[in-house]
UniProtKB/TrEMBL annotation:
InterPro entries: Auxin_biosynth/cation_transpt, CHP04046_FMN-dependent, FAD/NAD-bd_sf. Gene3D superfamilies: FAD/NAD(P)-binding domain. This is MSMEG_0569 family flavin-dependent oxidoreductase. It comes from Ideonella azotifigens. Keywords: Oxidoreductase.
Length: 427
């Protein structure tokens, strides 16, 4: 006797801004679908952000489908609570078909078409599946962390909330991308002693020639550039985000200025030998590289202003306010008084539950604008899926609309495979 499992035309894995944005378009088209979310909808914005967190892009770029930012400060930067309220408003307006607290254990294509989905809530079949769970799943912590003394408190950036959760003593922040630079600033502003291991992350200005740099880049069409037109092509997906902040109305993050104020800067962390931390002699090159990017972006804005004949304040070039006297390559944990380490070196993808031949050698899904080589299987919400804004509030709506069109075009084929699914799932 065969048992017909619950079936949906489209099953979406992940209830973040990507999954809900797609739901918006599928609801408008009358397409049956269900969203399965492991935690709560858009939980990362509540659970993986520190207390002083703000957006690093201006509020006007918050443009989820049918839910643009309509607050009083379009050129400001929403804080953690305001972001949560914005997202809650989106969900309330949308009323998506969503099941929370459901872990998807496996998704696999069926021979006759469609997919089998196993979850903590039972089994389903689906004509099509959209993976909208993002690409930041497993916090990266190096193996040397296992050898740090038990007396040293360790946190990943996903678990950092505020300086008060850390014991007295000096803090080592490893990584100076967006999270690392902002967390180092948070600790520094609270009067904590900070040692920062600096990697090769670039930086950019917050404001330049009278406007937010984001405003200039939007006018220049940067946020509409598809990944296929970027000089790095798909390689841009591996780039570290520029560090800058929206805190206190927005400002640059200048690690050199922090050094003048007492923060200790080192190159990238390489090893731990007993009590001794070892760093690569890369600090000067890292700071110089970040400044080249900073000045390069500003120079492109200068060119745009000149081409368009725009009236703007005069141009400028950043000049370093501090230089390292030399490369410090070792640091004793005990002698330096380090009592806490915060790992800010990112996340790795974990798609082990997705049993489909779509991955490259580094575990990332291969796709063209979210469409994979497996018919009816899509990805959404990944960085540079199509444009710079694909993993952000600014560009996910466009990507979701595109996939919704592809899903509707595929519907007849997906429905034709339903009989084969029921046979494959016979009990």
């Amino acid at each position: 006797m065969s048992v017909s499992l619950p079936h949906h035309s489209v099953l979406i894995v992940g209830g973040g801004q990507a999954g809900l944005s797609l739901s918006h378009h599928l609801q408008a088209a009358g397409v049956d679908h269900l969203i399965l979310e492991k935690h709560k909808a858009m939980h990362t914005w509540r659970t993986q952000r520190w207390d002083s967190f703000t957006l690093v892009t201006p509020n006007w770029q918050c443009a989820l489908p049918g839910h643009p930012y309509d607050g009083p400060d379009p050129h400001g930067f929403m804080n953690k609570g305001e972001i949560a309220a914005y997202l809650d408003g989106f969900r309330a307006k949308l009323q998506p078909p969503l099941r929370e607290g459901v872990t998807v254990d496996s998704v696999r294509p069926l021979p006759g078409g469609g997919f089998q989905v196993r979850s903590s809530d039972g089994e389903y079949t689906a004509g099509q599946v959209v993976v909208a769970s993002g690409g930041y799943h497993q916090p990266i912590v190096p193996r040397l962390a296992e050898r740090l003394p038990a007396s040293v408190t360790q946190l990943h950036s996903a678990d950092y909330r505020n300086p008060d959760q850390l014991p007295p003593g000096k803090m080592l922040v490893v990584g100076a991308g967006q999270s690392g630079a902002q967390i180092a600033e948070d600790l520094h502003l609270a009067g904590r002693e900070v040692v920062l291991a600096v990697g090769d992350a670039p930086r950019c200005a917050r404001f330049y020639r009278g406007r937010d740099v984001v405003d200039w880049l939007a006018d220049m069409g940067y946020y509409d550039m598809p990944v296929t037109a970027h000089p790095l092509r798909e390689g841009v997906r591996d780039n570290t985000n520029h560090y800058v902040t929206g805190r206190d109305g927005g400002r640059d993050i200048d690690l050199r200025r922090f050094a003048l104020e007492g923060m200790q800067l080192y190159g990238s962390l390489q090893a731990l030998d007993g009590d001794t931390l070892r760093f690569a002699p890369t600090l000067r090159a890292a700071l110089d590289g970040a400044d080249r990017t900073y000045n390069g972006i500003n120079a492109s804005i200068d060119q745009h202003i000149a081409r368009q004949g725009l009236d703007a304040p005069p141009p400028s070039v950043y000049t370093p306010v501090w230089q390292p006297e030399g490369e410090r390559e070792t640091l004793s944990l005990a002698a330096s008084g380090i009592t806490s380490v915060i790992w800010c070196i990112g996340f790795s993808p974990d798609f082990r539950w997705l049993d489909a031949p779509i991955f490259n050698g580094r575990g990332h899904p291969v796709h063209e604008r979210g469409v994979t080589a497996v018919p009816g299987l899509y990805v959404l919400g990944l960085p540079w899926l199509h444009t710079w804004g694909s993993g952000r509030f600014s560009g996910v709506a466009r990507d979701a609309a595109f996939l919704a069109e592809r899903i509707q075009a595929f519907q007849p084929a997906a429905q034709a495979g339903r009989a084969a699914q029921d046979l494959a799932m016979a009990a």
